[in-house]
Design a protein that fits this description.
The chain has 171 residues and is an alpha+beta fold. 37% of the residues lie in helices and 25% in strands. The protein has three helices and seven strands. The strands form two sheets. The chain has a four-stranded antiparallel β-sheet. Helix 1 packs antiparallel against helix 2. The two termini are 22 Å apart.
Amino acid sequence: MDNQYKLVFDITTEPLLLKYIIFFSIGLIASVIAYKNRVFHNAYKKREFFFFLVYFVFMGTGLLLTLGSIIGYLDNKTIYEDKEIKVLIGKVEDFDPMPYGGRKSESFTIKGVLFEYTDFDETFYFNNTKSHGGPIKGNGQDIRIAYFTNKNGENRIIKIELKVENIKENE
């Protein structure tokens, strides 16, 4: 990275979706407690049934989300290894911000390449909209983006660098 650009997002520095692992851990702890107290053998009692239900909600949800997180990580690794990453340098055009309450995605183009994202997607890739403090503020912003195109033809941002002058103007 040169001195003209400042890094504002890099997928390699983003943590795994930790909240999923936390869900799984809570379910695992609940299962150990349940086994120790033999809750599964007495699930007909209200208190034990509630514990049993909580166990399955946390354990099942956590397991599914953790597996999804791991699969996403492996997909990212494959993208890096296969060198499918493209880099664009240019000005933000056709900026269409997401309203604070959501309801639609935020989008912009650079040299005709469309990028679309929303804060409400659980993803490893860039998804921080302007209305929630994201770095893309509007048309004319000089930017350098690393991205790839997924199997659905969607461009996923994995790195964003803003030209230093833009950062001073937008603060």
